[in-house]
Design goal:
This protein is α/β, with parallel strands linked by helices and 189 residues long. It has seven helices and nine strands. It starts with 18 loop residues before the first strand and ends with a helix.
């Protein structure tokens, strides 16, 4: 997912093109490629981030243009293009690497229509991440990391499906870039 507005970042540059060694979205693409887990990698882009769309196409990535109406709406639109399980990842996880991608894929059992990766609030507090939205899972306060594995055949227009969760307290999935403060955290990670 790489078509967001990035308004909370308050930057004139598109968020996914901010550099942490290399552009943030390139870290995510590299992690997916190097994991060896996927037959194809497709970037969901929108008019909100035209330079990001141009950049990922320049890397040889296939893109799907979404309406740019928000994460949930864009994800719903993108999922209509698939009939097999999809590893959904936000393009702003600069610390993502192939090892953690493999761990998530190996943990997935394939029976759930939707499995999301969470990080516990306790861990997020330790690394300095301030989540905006929390859910209670397994008696713990947790936040979504921006990673899910979805069976699009079981999801119709994002209607309610039974979602399962995996808690992974690891900075590689916990630090996503939503604010300038999050970007500063990368330097300490």
């Amino acid at each position: 997912m790489c078509g967001g507005k990035g308004t909370r970042m308050e930057s004139v540059q598109e968020k996914l093109l901010l550099k942490y060694k290399k552009p943030v979205v390139q870290h995510v693409i590299s992690a997916l490629e190097e994991s060896g887990c996927f037959t194809k990698i497709i970037c969901a882009t929108s008019r909100n981030a035209p330079k990001t769309a141009e950049f990922v196409r320049g890397l040889g990535m296939q893109t799907i243009e979404t309406g740019g109406n928000g994460y949930v709406e864009d994800l719903s639109e993108a999922l209509k293009n698939f009939s097999e399980h999809v590893f959904v990842v936000s393009g702003d996880l600069a610390l993502l690497d192939s090892e953690i991608v493999q761990k998530i894929v190996n943990h997935f059992e394939g029976r759930q229509p939707w499995a999301s990766v969470l990080a516990s609030k306790k861990f997020l507090d330790l690394v300095g991440v301030k989540p905006e939205y929390l859910v209670i899972y397994d008696g713990k306060e947790c936040a979504f990391t921006g990673i899910s594995i979805v069976n699009p055949r079981d999801v119709v227009d994002m209607k309610s499906v039974r979602e399962s969760y995996i808690i992974i307290d690891d900075k590689r999935v916990a630090i996503n870039l939503n604010t300038k403060r999050d970007f500063e955290l990368l330097g300490t990670a």
